[in-house]
Design goal:
By secondary structure, the protein is an alpha/beta fold. The chain has eleven helices and ten strands. The strands form two sheets. A six-stranded mixed sheet has the order 1-2-10-7-8-9, sandwiched between helices. The structure holds pyridoxal-5'-phosphate.
Length: about 325
């Protein structure tokens, strides 16, 4: 086990299920498609940030914090899961929301994750796109200290080395499930955003001796920027778990052709993917991350990237709470 020595609090329902998608497999006529259900991590409607927060919040508790400070886009799933984790651990939560999407609708500003953040009692502050959030979070931390509190800052997406440990654990968990279920898997496909999921997963696999390829589908940055971001975080995380050098640059592959007009902006491919998974498999995906990643996976299947005798796993990172904020933009 790579993770035994790190402070950790239990927040997630683990292991998450690994399930075959028989209808989708038949519908697309390509490889056998499985889904890793990290939408079922259990905290506040679940999602990938909960695995990361086990370690981020573990460190916050170890350091004696009583107030968590974090940042995200207005419809951030990370903020929602962090707000819930803070409640569970008896801490306050100060949230910096970035107006990253142009011309947001009323629903986008108030429903979905924002509604849940407010139910969890997080203190929400709004900022313009492009704000220097490291500085802004430091100034909120000063404010908390001035009022006698003990702040702990979690970066966007909990995507530092500590948060990425959650996905090192997911990598180990997947290998164990493949082993137990006697499955030979050929590819993993995942959304890649702030990089902790992709970076941690690569480390979890490579540090355990697996050379299974991972295809990240970008939702935000161009390919070169995204791959560098993932590689840098993976290298630092590999060092943290005592396996320096286990990840090589070639291990990091991101396809950033499915972003459309920008982060959080709907695309036809996302719309099709969300409806396809709902109507074929009764599963909910989200408009910002997992829906666009699925659009990428579906396109790769149609283009023959994966052959019919292969078996692929799509990592479902959650986010369906965000669907409500997009109710007036989805075409049903
Ligand atoms: C944050 C998020 C991602 C991306 O994960 P990163 O670790 O930020 O790359 C993917 N899907 C959903 C639903 C998310 O909330």
């Amino acid at each position: 086990m790579l993770l035994n020595s790190f402070p950790r609090v239990p927040l997630a329902h683990l292991p998450t299920p690994l399930e075959l998608l028989p209808n989708l497999t038949k519908h697309l006529g390509g490889p056998e498609i499985w889904v890793k259900r990290d939408d079922c991590t259990g905290l506040a409607t679940g999602g990938n940030k909960t695995r990361k927060l086990e370690f981020s919040m573990g460190e916050a508790v170890a350091k004696g914090a009583d107030t968590i400070i974090t940042v995200g886009a207005v419809q951030s799933n990370h903020v929602r899961q962090t707000a819930a984790a803070a409640c569970k651990l008896g801490m306050k939560c100060e949230v910096l929301l970035e107006h990253r999407v142009a011309d947001p609708s009323e629903l986008y500003r108030t429903s979905g994750n924002v509604l849940l953040d407010r139910i969890f009692g997080a203190n929400l502050r709004e900022y313009d796109k492009g704000t220097d959030f490291d500085a802004a979070m430091e100034s909120v931390a000063d404010e908390v200290r001035a009022n006698g509190g003990a702040p702990y800052i979690i970066p966007g997406g909990a995507s530092n080395t500590v948060g990425a440990l959650g996905y090192v654990g997911c990598g180990e968990e997947l290998l164990q499930q493949f082993d137990e279920q006697k499955l030979k898997i050929d590819h993993i496909v995942t959304a890649t955003g702030s990089a902790g999921t992709h970076g941690g997963l690569v480390v979890g696999l490579r540090a355990s001796g697996s050379d299974l390829p991972i295809l990240g589908i970008g939702v935000n940055a161009p390919q070169d920027v995204q791959e560098e971001r993932v590689f840098d975080l993976a290298c630092e995380t590999a060092e943290l778990v005592g396996k320096p050098g286990c990840v090589s640059r070639d291990d990091i592959v991101a396809d950033c052709n499915y972003i459309g007009p920008g982060y959080g902006e709907p695309t036809d491919g996302m719309n099709e993917a969300v409806l396809m998974l709902a109507r074929q498999e009764g599963l909910l995906f989200d408009p910002v991350y997992s829906g666009k990643a699925l659009a990428g996976m579906i396109d790769h299947i149609r283009n023959g990237t994966f052959s019919t005798d292969e078996r692929i796993v799509f990592l479902h990172t959650g986010g369906a709470a965000g669907l409500f904020a997009y109710a007036d933009t989805l075409v049903l």
